[in-house]
Each structure stands twice: as structure tokens, then as C-alpha cells.
Amino acid sequence: MEALEGLLYGMGVLFTPTTLLGAFIGVLIGTAVGVLPGLGPVAGAALIFPLTFTLDPLTGLVMIAGIYSGAMYGGSTASILMKVPGDTAAVVATFDGYEMTRRGRAGAALSITAVGSFIAGTIAVVLVTFFSVYLAKFGLLFGPPEFFALTAGSLLVFARITGGSLASGMFPLVIGLMLGTVGQEAVTGDFRFTFGVMELSQGLALTPVAVGLFGVAEVLILTESARSSKKVSAIRVREMFPTREEWSRAIAPWGRGSIVGFVLGLLPGPSGTLSTFASYRLEKAVSRNRHQLGRGAVEGVAGPEAANNAASTSSLVPVLSLGIPFSATLALMLAAMIVQGVQPGPLLVEERPDLFWGIVASMYVGNIMLLILNLPLVGLWVNLLRTPQYFLVLVILVLSVVGAFSVRNSMLDVFSLLVFGLVGYALRKLDFSLAPLILGLVLGPLIESYFRESLFLGKGDVGVFVSSPVAVGLWVSVGAILVGGFVVPRIIRARRS
Amino acid sequence: MTEEEAAQSPPDEGRLDGKRKGRLVVGVIGFLLSAGYLFEAQKLSWGTLAQPGAAAFPMLLGVALAGTSMLTIGESVRTGAVAGAVELPRGVDRKRILGLVGALAAYVVLLPVAGYILASAGFAIAVLRLLSGLSWLRTVVLAIAVTAGTYLLFVMVLGVLMPKGVLGV
């Protein structure tokens, strides 16, 4: 199926009432968790995760994709209106977005964000449509050793880029991989690390771990200081329209941001954060009004917000074409596929074109829904921002407990929620990065199966891991990125001094 | 030293500040965990190199955890890669967060005993008393509303089977 034909086919499968409703609920929840502090996209998607098992695979996956893209939108709204970024990807939106709000241009900033995100999302969907098919064809050349290199290698790169110091990313990654080994082993049937607890034979459930690490821990951090709900002034509909000058200043940054975001979304790493900062730097370097950046310049909102949305769309490419997620939320999407019995990887486009093209099409339709949700309904989100903190904390914690229990009606999962909440709080206080832990937990079982299959294929010869040019190329790239991370900053420092 | 020089100079590598101490503890816990994990892993079937058993991958991970734990310890003791004070809440802020953790722990423990409705209402009252300045009446009304709302949505509409507890509610 050719790319354009595929996209049309995707639209066809998407346009059923249930799936469209799923997409709508996804972007709605996504925007809410993005706007509100305390429950980010990972915890939001993790709470929905058990619900997706009861739906058909496409509706469930489209819902998670909606949460992912909706949260990006919502995060920017809170940044622009209140200077409270929901996550690091939304930090850049505070630079010029909040300054615009202070100057009474909040409505214009939100419109420029929403329209820019829509345009970037559209450009990215078109590129994704073509890119995914070719990447999936390339992926067909892969056997277990190449997949082992790709999965394990990209996890290492991800942990290195995300973590700050080397141990900050690698330590949580290994813990996540180890947690993934708990339960009954698929090939031998051995019970591993279950200590006689029958409920552990199915392994640790993803929801309590993700909600604990990202939801409960965040709520604890939120509660550290008693904040009264911030004052947010209402925005009238006529204030939503940017001036002609503001529109014209936004166009070029939208285009540049879309390209930067699309490219960074394809690579391992926190693409939302990287793309917004990279786009901001680019605007500082090339924009005609660069001297105004940081003081409420339209370019500082338009570029990064377009980049953010393009990156969230293009980061679907590695998930759909190769089965490799580069963010914790997309790892949940991959996990949802596995639970639904869908094998992620390059064969997905051939075996389940409905899912592949349906999800791609949903990103497009989701963008239109987000445009409607974010422009005329901005008043709703402003009201949501006025929710008192005590109410938010209470509702998030009760939802977390219900969500953890509902996975398999087990109190063990509720206990793990509490434990991982405390672990997440401690690790965050000590500057460890938590996303690699979730990626390790989801991808661990896949990496183990590639590891075993490779050795089986090589009849026990460990040389099988570097037996093909693709595998060698992948490991060399991984090595270069990891070593480069040490060497390049030292060279720069030496030159400066 | 001027402020600029102070900002550019590397952190004092001899002094173990809050974050470095904390990460040292995490590294040591990780190392002990790797020992326990490897001990449990070696009891599993080893298989052959061509057909690895259930122990093979965990053995590699156990060694990797030992390695990354050593790295964490090394980073905290030898370098100032991650340094600074751990920003922990103090005074009333600390009391509030400890109270919240205590309430959550009690909620989790009491859930199977008291059942969803009673445990959630109790938890809601505790959280609202801790975090809000609402009157008792408003606290109780809001607690009942949150409990009833979530019960209606999750138990009645979505069919989640929450624990009923000894009283059967």
C-alpha cells in the first residue's frame, strides 16, 4: 500500500463512532493532564492503559496517541498563562509565552501555539506517512541480532541523553530492565523473582509502576509547598485573534520549528524537550526579531511550539515502523499493543494496516480536535487552572489507587503504586531520570527474546550479535554517541580555556 | 572569588553534599540489590549458549546493576557530576507531606479491610484536613462527593470491582 493510499485507508478505518470518540476522549484527557499540574502524560496514559484492554486495539491505541499529543498542547497552555510548565518540554513556552500574557497578549499566544501546532502536526503527518513505510521496509532486513542492537542500543543512547550524568540515566534503566524479568519466563516456564507470590507470576503491572513514578511522586512534590490556586484572568474570544503583524511573524518560525521537531522526534531522546530548546536556539540565531526573544516575541512561541508538536508526531515513526518507543508514554502505547496481541515492528504495516494507518490518521484528526478544543474552549482550561490544589491532589491520588487496583483486581498493585511513588519521589530529588526505568520495564522482555533468538540463530556463537553490517553499523553509532557524550564537551571546554 | 568565578569553578569534589550523600546511599542499595538478584538468578535454569535458560539474561542484568551501582557510587564520591543540596521541605511543609504519605499508606492498608467507600471517604477527609482550610462541614461534604462520584463512575458505570471490606460496602 502506497503512502497516500495508506493515509486515506487510515482515515476510513478511523471514521467509526467508537474510534473517533476514543480519539476525542484521548485528546481531551491529554489536554487536561497537560494543563493541570500533578498528573503528566505518562501517568495519564498509564491510568487509561487498563481501560484500553477492554476496547478494540485501534480505539485503545488512538486514545493513548491522543493523550500524548493533547498533553503537549495542554502543557503549553499552563506555561503561557501561569508560567507553570507541566513538564520540561513546556519550559520554553514560559520564556516568551508568559511574557506575552503579561503584556495582555495571552489569547494571541495561545492562538499562535494552537495554529502552529496544527500546521506542524500536519507537516509531520505527511512526512510520517512517507517515512514510516520506507523505515518499515528497511526494518524488514532486520533479524534478531539487528533488533537486539537497535532496541538495546537505543535504550542506552536514550538513557545517556535523558539522564544528565551517566549514572542518572543508566541506573534507572537497569532497574527497569530487572523489573521486567519478574514473573513466569516465557520459554522455560520458570518463575523468576516471584518469591512464591502467585500474583507476581504475571510480572509487575505497568500501570502502578508508571503512575507511582510519575503521578504519585509528582503529587508529593506538588504538595511540598502549600500553593493557593493561582489567579488566572479570563480570556475573551476577541482577544484570541493575533494581529496581522503577529501572524506574519509566526509563519517562518512555524516552518523551521516543524522541520527541527520532525527530525528530533525520530531520534532516541526526550524529543519534546530537545526540539523546543533547539527551535528556540534556532530562532535566536536566525530570526529577524531575535533581539526581542525572551521579552514576549511571537517567534519564541511559534517556533518551539510547532517543533514540539512535530516531534510528538514524528516520534510515532520508530514506534510504528520498528517497535521502538523513545518516550515513556509511547512505551505505554507499545505495551498496549503487546497486551492486545499485536506484534510491533516492521511487519505491522503489512499485517495490521488498519492499526498502522489508523494511528497515523488519528494524529491528523487529533490535531483538528485539539484546534477546536484549544481555541474556542480556552475558557474551560482557564477555569480548570483555577482548581484548588487540595482538590487536585485528592482526586489524583484516589484515581491512582482505583487505576492501580483495576488492572487485575489485586492489592499487590496498589502496594506497588505506593512503593514506586516513594521511590520516584526519592530518585527525582536525587536527580535520577525516571523515563529510562519505564522504557526498560516495557522493552526488557523484548530485548531478552531478541537476545535469546540471536544466540539460538548463531548456535551459541556470540559473534552473531555483530554478524551483519546493519548490526555493526548500529553498535558503532551507539558507541560513537556514548563516547562522543564524554569527549565532545571536554574538547569544547579545553578549547575555551 | 567573584560571583562569576564561583559559578564557573567546579564543585568542591571533596565535600559530600546532600545529593552526593543520597546518591551514594542509592548506589550502595543498588549494589546490595544486585547481589541478591544475582543470588536468586543463579538458582534458575542456565541452559546452553545456543539455548539460554531463564538465568542467562538476569545474570547479565545483575552484573549490569552492580556496574551501574558502582558508577553511581563513584560519581558521588569522586566527581561533582551531580551535586547540591537536596531540597526537602521543612517545618509545616514537611509535616504536611509526611501527613499525606501517612494518609496514603493508611488508605492502601485499610482499603481491603474497610472497603472502597469507607476507606476513600476517610482518606478524603484526611487529605482535605491536611491541605485545605475548609471547615469540617465542607470537608465532609466534599469527601462524600468525591467518594460517591468516583464510586459511581468506576464501580457502577465502568464495572471496576473495588474491595468491599468486612462490612460488605
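qc> Chain A is about 75% helix and 0% strand.
qc> done
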